[in-house]
């Protein structure tokens, strides 16, 4: 069963089936109680569904088929649709880690950290808060410094 959703001239699968005489046009009425019927071959201007057969039905070209039993249709995967092959997960290759570069640290060469002044630390925090536009936070920090003096 092939549902026509695009222009028949652009549907490559349908064009190949028409040229191989493997198509039957299905005529379905949406109003009334008429049963579906088919015409062997491609009927231009028809919209809807087409049956595409695996072998040529050109010997019956133009004939009308009545009493279509849809429940007898088998779903056969389309051979023209290429499915992506399943990829195997990449094998875990154990790569050798590069040797770490070790830089010796001379403990005697490092200067001692300067003695931290708590007032200076609070003032630096207040300046940073002002630079960030947080005036209320800077005011609170400065108020705390004044209380400690």
Question: Which helices and strands occur, and which strands form pairs?
Answer:
Blueprint (H helix, E strand, L loop, with lengths): L1 E2 L8 H8 L3 E5 L9 E4 L8 E4 L11 E3 L51 H14 L3 H14 L1
Antiparallel strand pairs: 1-4, 2-3, 2-4, 3-5
Order of helices and strands: EHEEEEHH
What is the arithmetic mean of pLDDT?
Answer: 77
Which stretches of 5+ consecutive residues score pLDDT under 50? none
Strands, total number: 5
Coarse morphology: elongated
Oligomeric state of the chains in view: single chain
The rounded Rg comes to: 41 Å
Output the number of helix runs.
3
Proportion of strand residues: 5-15%
Q: CA-to-CA gap between the ends? A: 91 Å
Largest sheet: 5 strands, antiparallel
Portion of residues within helices:
10-25%
Can you describe what's shown?
The chain is of the alpha+beta class and 149 residues long. Among the domains are: 2-72, no CATH class; 118-148. It is built from 3 helices and 5 strands. The protein has helices at 12-19, 118-131, 135-148; strands at residues 2-3, 23-27, 37-40, 49-52, 64-66. A 5-stranded antiparallel beta sheet has the order 1-4-2-3-5. The longest helix is centred in the C-terminal third of the chain and has 14 residues, at 118-131.
């Amino acid at each position: 069963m092939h549902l026509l959703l695009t222009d028949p001239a652009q549907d490559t699968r349908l064009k190949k089936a028409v040229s191989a005489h493997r198509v039957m046009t299905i005529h379905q009425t949406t109003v009334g109680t008429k049963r579906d019927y088919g015409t062997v071959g491609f009927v231009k201007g028809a919209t809807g569904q087409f049956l595409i057969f695996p072998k040529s039905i050109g010997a019956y070209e133009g004939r009308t088929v009545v009493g279509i039993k849809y429940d007898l249709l088998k779903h056969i995967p389309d051979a023209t649709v290429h499915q992506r092959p399943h990829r195997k997960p990449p094998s875990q290759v154990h790569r050798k880690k590069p040797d770490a570069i070790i830089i010796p640290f001379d403990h005697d060469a490092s200067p001692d950290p300067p003695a931290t002044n708590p007032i200076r630390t609070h003032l630096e925090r207040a300046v940073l808060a002002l630079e960030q536009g947080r005036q209320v936070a800077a005011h609170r920090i400065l108020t705390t410094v004044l209380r400690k003096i």
